[in-house]
Amino acid sequence: MLTKRVKARIIGEHQDHDKDTGSATVQVAVLSRQIDDLATHLKKHPKDNHSRRGLLKMVSQRRKLLAYLKRRELSTYEKVIKKLGLKK
To answer: Maximum Cα–Cα distance for the chain, whole Å?
Structure first.
C-alpha cells in the first residue's frame, strides 16, 4: 500500500502538467511501485495466494497501459521504459 506522500512524489515525477494525475505514464509509474512492493511482500510470504492474484492483475494492467503507450506515443513509451527500468 502506497502512502499519500509516496504516491504524490511518483505522480509529481511523471506528470505532464500540473493537474495530470491519470495519464498512462503516471498510471504505469504508480503500478510499477505497487508491483515492486507486492513482490517484496510475496518473497516473505510465498503462500499468500490472494496477494499473488492482485499482483498478476496489476502486472496485466501495466502491460496493457504500456501497449497503449507504444501504439499511441512511441517516444513517451521509450522514455517511461527507460526511466522505470522495465524490459521492452
So the answer is: 41
